[in-house]
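Q: My collaborator sent me two sequences in one message, no labels, and asked for predicted structures for both. Can we handle them in order? The first one she listed is below.
A: Yes, handling them in the order given. First sequence, followed by its structure tokens:
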Amino acid sequence: MDAQAQSALRVRLTRLSRALLWGDLEADTEQAGFITRFQAALAEGESSTREMAEMALAWAARTRQQSDQRAAVAFADTHVPWRDDNRHLWTFIEDGDEEDQPQRTRPQAPPQAGGLPPRHYPEWDPSSQHMRPDWVCVFDGLQPAGDATQIDRLLAEHSATSKHLQRLLDALKPQGRQRLRQQAQGTELDVDAALRAVVDARASGHTLDERVYSSHQRQGRNMAVLLLLDLSASVNDAVPGVEGQTVLSLTRAAVALLAQAIQTLGDQLAIAGFHSNTRHEVRYWHIKGFGEHWQADSAPKARLAAVQGAYSTRMGAALRHAGHLLSGRRADKRLLLVLTDGQPADVDSNDPMDLIDDAAHAVRELRDQASIYTHCVSVDAQADDYVQRIFGARYSVIDRVEQLPRRLPEIFVALTR
């Protein structure tokens, strides 16, 4: 067969392999550049399969010829006599198995003694456009306690903000009993309405208006709020331009002020945090339960003082678990308030859009199936694109992290006005 009617791809690959292995063969200009890149990657230390694959794809794109797509392939002089012990030949890797490999920079969190068994949740699969059933394991845990006086000191440091919030809360606070006048039924006679009804009936000759009673109803808010905190490793980062402050320290102050405000209003409140280390380990930390009192009980403050950031942000699973817990509360309105500093991500997810789309599915599920209103507060100045994809119009972005202690309670007040 005419050599020009054959694909020379295998020949070129063989020449490249020999040049990479021995480095002393003559190579054309294109190969020489990739040999230099290959040797530089080895010189930097242990490389990765992904890095080599990216280099190979770049070589294929750079050296592609029209004949490469021909079915007939040239095999002459394409033997490379290297030694292969076949250790990788019998390793079968399915999609998703790579997450089972040990994480060099992310050690597995130890299991919690006496902890509950994991709860399994589905996750959206973008390739099949269906939910993967029982795909994610969520472990409940009670956040270990720290020093509650640290939270009291934070509240004292932000006393000016607390006074500002108190003025906002006075407009929302229930004002006790409200008297309803001119009722057809009631516990008392509405004297003014009765006299007016008699005068009108005599003047017009019409039937007496029977709405001459008054009754009372208790004014109040019947709201359940679950504050869900993103406790991924990035919250440990220092805040630029603010000495001695991290995202986590400002989060503690903001949460303490918000909890104090919600307690004043009498709303039901629970606080939890989450982080993840692959789909097999999403940790959900209970910081304050609905039945605990923020002011009278020091335990929630002690737990808030001890929260730490670690691992990644598998938000969809945490949203589903929080929604499951919130859906059991009796309330006129149920609000899931999410505080985060970045987009959903995890070490076993290669495409950043996968977990973003899964979180968006979780938000829609909570809205349509459990009537739970979800709102996100992000301190990532670049969050608008992905947070809008997840939460729609129900989000707020705080561009300056140092404003979080003041802005978070203000956002809550505006949401529930």
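Q: And the one she listed second?
A: Here it is, processed independently of the first:
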Amino acid sequence: MGDNRNNKIINIKEGRPFRINIGIVIFLVILVYTIICIFMYFTQKHIEGHQVKIGALSSNNIYKGIALRDEEIVTANKAGYVNYYAREGERVGVGNLVYTLDESGRLADYINAETDSITLTTRDLNELRTEILGFRNSFDPKYFSSVYDFKYNVKGTVLKLANANILENVDKINSSGLSELISFCNAPSTGILIYSVDGYESLTLEEFTSDLFDMKNYEKTQLISNELVEAGQPVYKISTNEDWSIVIQTDQEKADELLKAEFVKVKFLKNQDTSWGEVSTYTNVEGEIFVKLTFTNSMVTFCTDRFIDIELILEEETGLKIPNSAIVEKEFFIVPKEYVTQGGNNYGYGVMREIYGEDGVATTEFVETTIYGETEKEYYLDDMVLRIGDYIVKPQTSEKEALSKRGSLTGVYNINKGYADFKQINVLYKNDEYSIVKSNTQYGLNVYDYIVLDATTVVDDEFIY
């Protein structure tokens, strides 16, 4: 018995049942599903929807303007070194000291020696901070030369602040023996001081051309303290009137719109302040149109700026906001309203079309069609079920006419029902990206409707999956 058991060989593999690895099966199913999804994604048409919402658009009303002021240039009556004692942008009265003219040049050395002991006040530091922030907000890398203007502005401001502090010690200047060689020059009239010249001081609206707005051709000379001037050279200018203007270049449509308004609210982009400007226009011999906005305040804030960026605050258009990519033009048959009637199982709108039987006898049939728009006397009908040359018959009469007149409507494809359904829109305003359309029109859109984002991706009545 024992020998028989020891000599018996059993084949374990024989008769072993086949077992399925459920993990591998699940993996293969997921892999196949993923491959199918990827294939369908790259082979199917992609139609993206967009929900219509209430919105508003303001037109792009940002302009670069040129400031015009009543500016009087004051020149030196003799040669010498100029040292300013009144701050730029400060209002001075007749007879107030503006600058000194030093014939010897020794006052500059005296000022430099005294400058090290001068401490700027909080007001002085605020003036410098305002100038720095103004430059940072208006800097354009395309006009890097403005950096040098800023450099001279800051340098001139610091020197004027230092000189003003030194002037408080006039007794020291007199005791130094310099007083006989120094001329104290006072303001000839009341106004705002500006320490730069650019050739635009006497410019009038009737002299404007588009070339004046090219900053590459613009040259501004900064008048700096401690500089040597000759007799007759500009030393400063004074703006004598608080009334001032900004001139912008526009097209005829915008000019007419502004002129009709008479007064326009203007936002100054430099500091975000607003003011109302009175509108006047001028067209030069080249046909270039310019709009002049006249203000009665804020001149002192921008007295040193010739080019000023502004935004015109006009009334915003409000309605349904849709992307321009969704807008499409579509042609329709134009049919007189008296030819349109109601009938069929659904008692819908349509026309009576003339047809001929096998015996050649003319009869009519009701053809239901969708109305997509209307005028006072005509309807725009779908051209999917009608053809050019079809005769339609006026109900209750024998009058008929052939379909031939066509016209186009502006609209979008509505996909609320799962297919591309054209809806007419009435565009109130548009910019480069969006349009504002009238809401709740008879054949148009309503808020929260879904439309095709890109109208070129669908055709009429295409089902949306």
